[in-house]
Design brief:
Elements lengths: L1 H13 L10 H9 L1 H4 L34 H4 L7 H9 L1 H4 L13 H14 L4
The structure holds heme C.
Length: about 130
């Protein structure tokens, strides 16, 4: 009986998705802040089309380059590459970094909140 319980527990654990590597307070804060983005973006490839482009593998990607998404000319022409520094500027005020882009989001003024959100995005958007 005990052996069965152990086997069951092991199968429950292995059924979990690839474990988030980071359970720090900052990561958890980032996950909470990402709730603002979730309606419009997924962080892993998905057949679901949302209002915004899929952000799976976004780090290192040219802005405006996800397949099958109709970007604004403004974002496509921006020549930005998404890394932590460009994401920080984007999330502070998207309209300032790429004027004329169509992401309906005012921005996050608090630098620590942006850092936490970016940490979450970096970990959760990495290819699995
Ligand atoms: C109301 C929907 C909406 C919300 C909310 C939103 N976005 Fe966006 N996002 C968009 C759209 C639409 C674009 C494409 C803009 C364009 O083409 O000009 C975009 C573009 C982006 C891009 C550029 C992706 C690429 O492939 O170049 C990033 C990064 C991004 N959003 C991150 C975020 C994050 C992080 C949040 C939460 C703080 C967020 N977005 C909130 C709709 C949204």
């Amino acid at each position: 009986m005990a052996a069965l319980a152990v086997a069951l527990a092991a199968s429950v654990v292995s059924a979990q998705p690839a474990a988030p590597a980071d359970q720090s307070a900052e990561f958890k804060r980032g996950r909470m802040l990402y709730i603002q983005c979730r309606a419009c973006h997924d962080l892993q490839p998905s057949p679901v089309e949302k209002v915004g482009p899929n952000l799976g593998g976004v780090i290192g990607r040219r802005a405006g380059s996800a397949a099958d998404f109709a970007y604004s000319p403004a974002l496509q022409a921006s020549k930005l590459v998404w890394d932590e520094a460009t994401l920080d500027r984007w999330l502070e005020k998207p309209s300032a970094l790429a004027p004329g882009n169509t992401m309906a989001f005012a921005g996050i003024a608090n630098a620590a909140d942006r850092a936490a959100l970016i940490r979450y995005i970096v970990l959760e958007s990495a290819p699995r």
